[in-house]
Design goal:
Chain lengths: ~400, ~400
């Protein structure tokens, strides 16, 4: 029998318990032994739930149980979660998480502890919810040099953009709808300002190139200032507006990563991805473009990814996977010299601009700095990158 | 240093050598040691190629080299490839292949030998070319009960169908174009009659449910009899015609698998997948629908998947992955009682049919047997399943 614990019994944590309840038999068959949920660590009172027997309030119970193999961290944030993850790894437990904030900000340190203690720190659920993407990137595409990763990484903003495009409603109205459907939180800043997507593109970049990129070092632009006018012009000209996280590696070895709303051509496979769905395209120098698509959030989809990692950690109890990124990446800021194409809305045509519609142009390649200068010169009302 | 060999230096085999040449440095960094191509086994004379030093003609050189860890089988077919795979596994070598015919027809036996000898037999490249799909299915989605797999599994037929839909050309004309572009072989039967897709859906089914399904036991219908009329009617009614491999598990534990051209609703994520691209959707009871998309064939994409498996086999030299399917599946034939929806082209309306266009109807759910009886009764000119 293999024992695991869940720390934090919120949406993801209770989803993991539910997946075990639903699929315990097939999980045991694949694992070759039963999987036992031994502890649930939560400050809440679980005595009236079916999990009264597993409930504990003291982390040291988990830390000191030599029969506990794997700990699922679904606490969230980077405070208590950081402390308990550190201590669990130091106690020789494998740790599995869906906590993108913690992985993006402390992944390097936690992977170093895991390496030292010869245990696994796995986080497939931190990007794309239930969509398998980190393991395929790291393992199946290991024969490639990864050139680019670009994706719709946040379901809340994709729902809002879908409503703006298809329903013709403003950002503020679409946000209200998303909140009433439970897709957006009361304080939606981390989603709509792009920070959530920023954390995820950093994790993808870390794994693709083995060097740390920190969310605070990349340019992150959300959708809260997006004008319905530009969404309309883009739609009529054969583009969809999508909030994309994007990471590239240039031929000279420098990297770039950023988050911004983009114009995406309709024939690009990520253009038709609507509502709360996520899609991530990865370009390798052998495989070409591959895309991964599915629900990027939700209790059971996220729990599916967590459970996959729990089973993988148990299958490799004796051998740690090396997922580490040890150095910092030689990053170029988008602001400096990454050449992109740009959508400009302006009454006077920019030099070299190709007319997209009345008062709207596409121009490039230009660095962000040059594009901003150009936008100022022609007094542009909007400036958005275009995916090519 | 880790040593591997390539058996069969055709399109895939030489692609694997090329990927090592392109990416040897990053591969060594990920592996933690250099990867050395020690032998190339082929009947052809390679003395004028850059691989003269590695060329061997006698399989027993590979078999008897204790320093050889992994053998790539890219011979194709199920004769020589079967013998050499058996002998390589029995000699304690890990074997990696892209050979879908061999995996679909002899996978059970070869996995049993691999298990006995504690080595890996890996075949990610056998389905979807470079698209990561088997490992995500088996590993990342291990916490799910898989309910359905449906996909565009053959690039040649998808190219032909794309030309029929978008170019309005007949099957025969589109096939000629595909042949002139090198997408279809001179003898295109295995592709256009659906056998290639049939082998792949069997492999997916084997891995999803751990029970063997053999290509000769499932219903396989290709696209050679497809009428341009039905493609047109479907397009105008919001459907795309796609050759799909499909595998399902019913609630009573019985399984079904089949290959047939389907009407696919335009808003289904696999509908816009055109040309030689493949896309595979997997439905799990926790994750919902996830989709994997990319180039399903070609030298470098396929070699990308082979190289991913080679690196995985080397990372797990000491520990075998259990991918086995040991029993036969309790299969229901599509002909018996799998209920599907159907497109019928007929001058008289079938009972309960919903009108799609003049002289075209959708009806169901009906088993194939009942649908065929109905088609005969109304003297239908076409009968195709509809994906719902």
């Amino acid at each position: 029998m293999a024992n695991f614990a869940i720390m934090g019994f919120g949406i993801v944590g209770s989803g993991v318990a539910e997946v075990l309840r639903m699929n315990g038999e097939s999980i045991a068959r694949k694992l070759g032994e039963p999987l036992n949920l031994k502890y649930i660590l939560d400050v809440r009172d679980l005595s009236a739930t079916p999990y009264a027997k597993q409930a504990v309030k003291d982390f040291s119970v988990l830390e000191n149980d030599p029969e506990l193999d794997v700990v699922v961290e679904s606490i969230g944030g980077a405070k208590v979660a950081l402390e308990f993850t550190r201590r669990a790894l130091l106690a020789g437990k494998h740790v599995v998480t869906s906590n993108k904030e913690l992985v993006a900000t402390h992944g390097k340190e936690l992977l170093a502890i895991a390496k030292e203690k010869n245990v696994n720190y796995l986080f497939e659920a931190s990007v794309g919810g239930g969509i398998p993407v980190l393991r395929p990137l790291f393992q199946c595409l290991a024969g490639n040099q990864i050139q680019e990763i670009v994706g719709i990484l946040n379901g809340t903003t994709n729902y809002i953009l879908t409503r703006m495009v298809k329903g013709g409603v403003t950002f503020a109205e679409a946000l209200k709808e998303a909140q009433s459907k439970g897709y957006a939180e009361a304080n939606p800043a981390a989603d709509v300002e792009g920070l959530d997507a920023g954390r995820k593109i950093c994790i993808l970049s870390d794994l693709a190139w083995g060097r740390e990129v920190r969310p605070e070092d990349i340019s992150i632009q959300g959708i809260s200032h997006l004008d319905l006018k530009d969404v309309d012009i883009a739609s009529k000209a054969g583009y969809r507006v999508k909030l994309l996280g994007r990471a590239l590696r240039l031929e000279d070895g420098r990297q770039a990563a950023y988050v911004a709303p983009h114009l995406v051509p309709e024939d690009c496979p990520i253009a038709p991805v609507d509502d709360v769905f996520n899609a991530i395209m990865i370009r390798g120098n052998a495989v070409g473009d591959v895309m991964f698509y599915g629900r990027g959030a939700g209790d059971l989809p996220t729990a599916s990814a967590v459970m996959g990692d729990v089973l993988d950690a148990l299958a490799h109890r004796a051998k740690r996977r090396d997922l580490g990124w040890s150095e910092s990446a030689p990053l170029i800021r988008q602001e400096q010299d990454l050449p992109l194409f740009w959508y400009l809305r302006s009454e006077s045509a920019p030099e070299g601009g190709e007319k997209l519609a009345e008062g709207a142009y596409i121009t490039g390649p230009l660095s962000v700095k040059d594009a901003r200068e150009l936008a100022e010169k022609v007094n542009a009302a909007a400036l958005l990158p275009v995916l090519r």
